[in-house]
Amino acid sequence: MSRRSILLSRQSFSSISNLPLAFAIALPLILLTGCGGSSTSTPPVGNTVVTVLATSTGNDQLSQFRLTVANLTLTSKSGKTVTVFSTPESAEFVHLNGTVEPLYATEIPQDIYTSATVTIEPAGYPECVGYDPADNDLLINGSVGSYATPLTPTVNLPAPITVAGAGMGLALNLQVSESISSFNCTSVAGSASITPTFNLTPITIAAQPTNSADGKATGLHGSIDTIATNGASFSVTSADGPSWQVTTNASTLFQGISGASQLATGLPVDMDVAIQADSSLLATRVAVYDTNTANLSVMSGPLLQVSPSITALLPLMDQNQGPLFGGLPEGPFNFSFSSAAFQTSGQFANIQSLPFSASFTASNMVGGQAVLWTTHATTVSAYIPATTVTLIPQTIDGTVGAVSTSGSFTIYSVRLAAYDLFPNLAAAPGQPPLLTDPNTVIVYVDTNTQLLNSEPVAVGSLLRFNGLVFNDNGTLRMDCGQISDGVAE
């Protein structure tokens, strides 16, 4: 069975006798009692379905960090070792900052686990983008450093992990900022030392998940591989590695198509899914932004530069699928958008209620916004014609400078670090001066926003905000879907 089709199959557990792949990373566990953990002396009995979720925690220094997790094992307090999976699974972790992506699912023995081992295969090098005022140039640094040899990561785990019940999740959380030593993005010679560092923590899957902390995965991008005759289930290959088997029901919201009957192989989808206790994935939302599958290539990532004089955009691809870029490095490439259809992700239902005019068009898009775009071009040219350009959610890390209200919204003025994409790209040569203050994002929060931050929001709070970022007549404004604790800048 191939790696891409194995995600939701049941795998029997086995003892691991050796670690044949690139790097063996020991994950020692700090024996503390905390949320999701247990110090119970008697382990439970039976098997539990465990869904491993890829996620990350980081500031805004890096634009891309791709890794292949080749092996994950757990060791119980009695010394028994079980393999969670041993088939390589890849993910691009920066776009998962504060969100989750199902990576693998299997059954393992119920027990109290006190340590773990991960085997890592680096898939390229982390990338960053910076403006170098000395050269008056925009630098895309695809080699900010090299992997440490020997690889001896720092691992922070909150408590022994009790595997019990019918099903649960395990969050494999890449600590992005801790995984790479200090670096200067505008330095061409990558001198940073890269040591992937993870937190491994349990997730209790709710009966009706609402956020990344209780079993909901939002904004999953991929292409449909197979579909059941009745359209009630389909398989999706993601743009960055794993594959998913997805079901729909009467409550599934379809966007861009009328319903499950219009699903077809080759269609690109943007999905929200609720993870079930048995590891199955129930789609709560399925959006299709381009219904023409002929010669279809789909890409996503931040806009780097918008040049209206030549109607072109320069995106950095952190994920891509389709024939146009098969075998080619992941951008950037120039795209023309003179005939493209502009649209906004349907992930948020409150856009019309925002106290500003939230729009995304060819005339107001700016460098730093996260987009998903499609093309039906068959060859790579100087300016590849984009068919659709869709604004999608992204995560920013910043400090709250002011708090106010407007109707049902609480409004936070969030100050970004100097290395953030928005201020960096606004200063780049050739960029139109669309933003009056690219260092600040005005964040709008209402009752739909998921609050995962550990302390109340106040002036001076350092937080991560995930949502849609709009350019409103020179001011960056975010419709926020989730708030998480911030990462030191």
Could you walk me through the main structural features you see in this protein, from its secondary elements to its overall organization?
The protein is mostly beta strands. It folds into four domains: 3-203, no CATH class; 216-287, OB fold (Dihydrolipoamide Acetyltransferase, E2P) (Beta Barrel), CATH 2.40.50; 297-389, OB fold (Dihydrolipoamide Acetyltransferase, E2P) (Beta Barrel), CATH 2.40.50; 394-485, OB fold (Dihydrolipoamide Acetyltransferase, E2P) (Beta Barrel), CATH 2.40.50.140. Helices cover 1% and strands 45% of the residues. The protein contains one helix and 34 strands. Strands 21, 22, 23, 24, 25, 26, 27 and 28 form an eight-stranded mixed β-sheet that branches. Strands 1, 3, 4, 5, 7 and 11 form a six-stranded antiparallel β-sheet that branches. The longest helix has 6 residues, at 421-426. The chain is globular. 49% of the residues are buried. Residues 1-40 have low confidence and may be disordered.
What is the topology?
Blueprint: E1 23-28, E2 47-57, E3 66-76, E4 81-85, E5 89-92, E6 100-109, E7 111-122, E8 128-132, E9 137-141, E10 145-147, E11 161-163, E12 167-175, E13 192-194, E14 198-203, E15 216-227, E16 233-238, E17 243-247, E18 253-255, E19 268-275, E20 281-287, E21 297-307, E22 312-315, E23 319-321, E24 335-336, E25 341-344, E26 370-375, E27 384-385, E28 388-391, E29 394-406, E30 409-416, H1 421-426, E31 440-445, E32 450-451, E33 462-472, E34 475-485
Parallel strand pairs: 2-12, 10-13, 17-20, 18-20, 24-27, 25-28, 31-34, 32-34
Antiparallel strand pairs: 1-7, 2-6, 3-4, 3-5, 3-7, 7-11, 8-9, 12-14, 15-16, 15-19, 16-17, 19-20, 21-22, 21-23, 21-26, 22-24, 26-28, 29-30, 29-33, 30-31, 33-34
